[in-house]
Amino acid sequence: MSLTFGNRIGVFILAEISGISACAVTIPLAYIAYSAISIRSGARRRWRIESPVHLFLLNQLVCDLIQALGGLMNMKWAFDGTVHSGSFCTAQGLIKQLADVGTALSAGNVAIFTFSTLIFRLNPDTNVFRALLIVAGIWISIILNVAINVGVNGASRFYGPTGPWCWISEEFHVQRTVADFMWMWISAFSSLVAYLAVFLVLKGFITVEGWRVRWTYGQESPDIPRSHTLAYKMLAYPIIYIITVLPLAAARYSDFSGHKPRFGIIVFADGLYLASGLLNVLLYTYTRPFLLPHNNDSPDDQSISIRSEFAQSRGDLPGSTILGNTHVVDRDPSPIEPKSADPVYDTLEMAHRQPGTLPITTHGHNYESSGETLVRKGLPTIFDDI
After folding, report:
1. What domains are there in the chain, each with its CATH number?
2. Model pTM?
3. How many Å is the Cα radius of gyration of the chain?
4. 367: which DSSP letter?
């Protein structure tokens, strides 16, 4: 297929967007890889997988990078002025299908994980072995999805020129839907449903007790901290994914129906979709700071302990509270008068104190003392860094 001058400009713009997105995703991935491999384990700043969500988001960044590389390959068609079959075309079609399915499954996985943890309060296992199995399952599904179609139809026939780039050939209409298009819609729909439920629970419209769900008419639950801020942050994920996927899905659906959209619409839709890697990096940087290497002395360490021999017997605390392995918070060793049972303490977050325990506030967080441990209340600690 020959490209007009306007077509070549549009394809070149798509390649530029892909290049920007690829650079945006490569920078945090390279930084994470360097800090995880090269920096000493005792360094002040290093990256480590502390929870499944870190691995899930890391996997999504990898899929975003693959997607950007597929779009970056458009540069060849812009320079050549024509899109033709061959090994390069086959490679681009395969990469684009890998990216479409990979980003869809990764986004849906993060949505389901967040939903199950925040709504049904399933205990987030800090052991990443299960998360590794889930990620492995995602990639096995992606590889099988590609391998079966390539094995049955042949790579050079299954992938070919489809307008200004290469993708699944036009003769495979059913495979386009089942092996690519369908996964994007399923992920977008499941993400919207999951995060809408999260929003309703955090805003207090729905209360979940075990497996029972009931309406509470907008009464915010006192055991859910930071409800407004966290709800809005959660809603950003399906909004970003749907915004980037919906125009492309609409353009492809119109093409499937025999109503070929204008080239400018195709460029806009695909450009927005190819920019999803950049948007995800910006979103993760804002909402998930623990995804990047962090200071070992961070006050958000999830391992919390306290020397509290006298906490319950006398109502006082020792002169220092140990958070994590190294972080020490100095406190006034003067006695603390016991409070009445079950008051609610409000700082930056809300927490309930059990009768007979003492409130401890540090870095704007509330904890409960019980024997040798402090337990942070509210949302599971896996989401404390959001």
Report:
1. 5-189+224-295 (1.20.1070.10), 297-377 (no CATH)
2. 0.72
3. 25
4. E
